[in-house]
Write a structure and sequence with these properties.
This protein is of the alpha/beta class and about 190 residues long. The chain folds into 2 domains: about 45 residues, no CATH class; about 130 residues, 3 Solenoid (UDP N-Acetylglucosamine Acyltransferase, domain 1), CATH 2.160.10.10. It contains 4 helices and 16 strands. The N and C termini lie far apart (about 75 Å).
Length: about 190
């Protein structure tokens, strides 16, 4: 077994059980920086649901706060209450113009890398994969839906409430279910 770094031993001693691969990639200064940036992120995230801001929260405050967290958010975006974004990986999230994200949705940008996971391995020691999420212009994501890491949702898509989006969804379609599947193509308007 390789000798463990001082950072790894310190973090392990204070009860943080992350994979050794992650500890080897950070310095103690990085960990301290994360410690002090997390309260700032938590304040921004908690402000999203302060009742006093409710009249301006969905279209002004929440998109503004997501930008402050590092997400790329377009114009005229609606973000419902209790929407949860991957706090420390917000820079991996891109939301287009005129997007509507309903209440209770969750958008994730990290997951455990199971590509090297075998019987007898410790799941807690698996490294994380960080993957971007992109939501196209004019898309609507229904209430209590989950968008998983690495997913691209196209333009004009309607994702039904309670859906679990695990794969890319093409432009101008309706997708529903767990996992979400395309059930209909949105037709072009006939011009007479």
């Amino acid at each position: 077994m390789a000798k463990l770094s001082l950072t790894y031993r310190f973090l392990r001693a204070i009860g943080l059980n992350y994979p050794e691969e992650e500890y080897g990639q950070v310095s103690l200064i990085t960990v301290i920086g994360k410690f002090f940036s997390n309260p700032y992120h938590m304040l921004l995230l908690s402000m999203m649901n302060w009742v006093i801001f409710e009249p301006i929260a969905p279209r002004m405050l929440r998109p503004f706060l997501l930008r402050r967290l590092g997400a790329r958010v377009g114009k005229d975006v609606y973000v419902g209450d209790h929407v949860k974004f991957d706090q420390n990986r917000s820079k991996l999230i891109t939301v287009g113009n005129h997007v509507h994200i309903d209440s209770g949705c969750r958008i994730l940008c990290h997951k455990r890398d199971l590509s090297n996971y075998f019987v007898g391995d410790d799941y807690a020691k698996l490294p994380y994969k960080e993957l971007p999420v992109s939501i196209g212009d004019g898309t609507s994501i229904g209430m209590d839906s989950f968008v998983m890491p690495g997913v691209t949702i196209g333009k004009g898509v309607v994702v039904g409430s309670g859906s679990l989006v695990t794969k890319d969804i093409p432009d101008w379609t309706i997708a529903v279910g767990r996992p979400a599947k395309v059930v209909k193509d949105i037709p072009k308007r006939d011009i007479d």
